[in-house]
Each structure stands twice: as structure tokens, then as C-alpha cells.
Predict the structure.
Amino acid sequence: MSQDVFWHDRAVMNIDKRDKVMIVSRSFRLVSTILLAGLISFGCTGSKEEAVSQKSEEALAYVSTQKGNVIVIDLKSMEVKGEIQVGAKGPRGIGVTADGKTLITANGEDGDISVINRNTGELIKRIAIGENPEFVRVRGEQVFVSYEPAAIGGPPPAPGSEEAEALAKAREEDEEEPAQIAIVDLVKGEMVKAITGGMETEGIEFSADGKKILVTNEADENITVHDIDTGNLVKTISTQAYGNRPRGIKAAPSGEYYVGSLEFGNKLVIIDSNFNLEKVVTTGKVPYGLAFDEKGERLFVALKQDKALEIFDTKSWESIKKIPTGERCWHFTFTPDNSQILVACGRSDEVVVIDMETLEPIKSIPVPNMPWGIVTYPKAIGSLDIPN
């Protein structure tokens, strides 16, 4: 009890009833004021950290930009809210931990990843990976990052062209290193393992049992399956007969099959739970990013050349619709409430917003410096992420 309240109570004993009521009333107001001030100061919990946590629960999207940093979009207003400095050049792959505390970017030009406090935007640490880190998947306290020592940068040569044949020969003669999948332990703050992939490994997906990873190898024209614990190659799935440059890879929500995209084949390959290729589906031009809807009834495919997001019925594998987007749109995410889709479009410097009910674009959010990847928190389904 404060001294002010104590002396008010002592005074009550020596005054008449009317004044007693008045002073008791003032004492009550004084105590109420003190308590209210305390609640305001401590965010009703007495904890500054919890106040920050409450603020961080607002739904936000994070867009990596190849020539800039990370742009933050408020998902309520669908407006740019701010920018997070990654402290490195060329952020492409992006992910967020399940608890929402940490944001990760793969920095292609600097060969590392940035570990960022998502609530404050503060750069915690940069962790060296290797040349050309690109694709990021976060699982628990581990980050899986594909990096490509042999990547040439820029658009690849057309399959079968003289440039493509010369590149393949040069790689063979120079014995260039295959790509790797780095595994980073966020608790230790270091890379703890690397799994050898193929030439120009890109997409990463986890098997239904969580014990293996499937990766797409663009220059090797295959999808490989690896044991996470041992790093051993489990299986190689050739895709060359159906098209070139496998890039995207996604597991069905049921865990019963996987879908890969062949960028220069305009195809999807359907792979069963035993990692056998069982079906090929024709898409629009230059497919890459993939994501199922929440129930797994539809698959959404980003088409670079068609400037569209194509939707497939996963029972018939028939194309339902192509939704117009922007230029070089590779990755996309649903909003946490599944009411909209946000598509990152690199060449048109925008994020296109699509309404899930009408399946029509409803807004373009200007985002400069070549958007590459996009994720949200709270976590949502997307080509780079799933809730976990």
C-alpha cells in the first residue's frame, strides 16, 4: 500500500461521516489510477516481451527481393508496411520459423543466410553456406538451403542448343561440384551438415515420414531422394524424357504423392509415395512454383512465360483456370485465412493479389527490386512454405 493511501485511511478515523465517505472515495480513485497506470505500462501482463508478441500477431507477408532486402506487407490493408535490412546481397529464398520469432533469407551473391528477429527486424547473424544459396525450407529449428557452386547465373541456355551442349561439356571437363543441401541448426547458429544433390539443385521437399528430402536438379534432369540422417542417395527419378529443368517440388497434403514442375517441358510429374513417376500432366508455359490448397483438391502452378497462375483439379488433373498475374512470377503464398493469394512477380516489380472466391486478381502492390520469394506469418500454405 502507498503512503498516500495509508494516510488517507488514518484521516478517516478523525473526521465526520460525510468527509469520511469523500476521502474513502478519493482513496479508491487513487488506487484505481495506480492500477490502471500499471496495466497500461505493462500491456496488461507486466511483460514487455509479451506486448511485442501481441503486436507481432498481426498477419504480415515477407517478400525477398533479389536487388534489395525484404519488403513487409500488411495483409489487412494489403499495403507495404516497411522494409527489413538483410545485411547481404541478393536475397532469394525465404522462410520463417513455426514460432514466428525468426526470419531466414538465402543471399545468393554473398553465399550465406541471414537470421533475422522477425518481431524487431534486427539482423541476428549471418551464417556462411556456399556459392549461390537459393531455395530455403524451414523445419523446426533447422533450415535446409540448396546452394549451387556450378550455377551460371541468369537465364539458362535452351535445351539442346549449342550453348547448352558447350556448358555440359565444360562442366564435365572441369569436374564442377554438384549442388549441396546445407542443413543449418538455428540453436547452434551454424551449418551442421551438407547433403550432396545434383547439378543446380533447386527445390526441396520433405517426405511424408519426415525422414527424407526430395530435391530437383535442374541441370541433371532428375529428382533425387535423400536420407536426411545419413545424407545417402535413396533414389534417382529421371525426368528427361518428359521435359527439361525440373524446378518446383511439392508434397500433397495427404502425403500420398508428390508433384514436380519441369520448367522447359511445360509439364508436371506426379510421383507416388514409393518415389515412382506415375503420371505426366501438361501445363502452360514455363511452370515453377507449386502449392496445393488446404484440402489438396486443387494444385496451383506459377507460369513464368504465360504470366499466369494455373489451377488443376487433383482428381482429374484437368486445368481449371489460368489467372493473369505479372512478369516472371515464380513464388506465391495463400494468406493465413486462405481468402487470398499473393504472387511475387520479379520482372514487373509487384505482388499480385488474387481473391480465392472469384479466382480473379484484385490488386497489384508495387514492390521494387525484383521480388523473388514470399511467405507469411502466421504461416500459410505457399510454394515456399506450409504451416507446421
Q: What stands out?
A: DSSP finds four helices and 28 strands in the chain. Residues 3-41 form one domain. The helical segments are 3-12, 17-41, 48-56, 162-174.
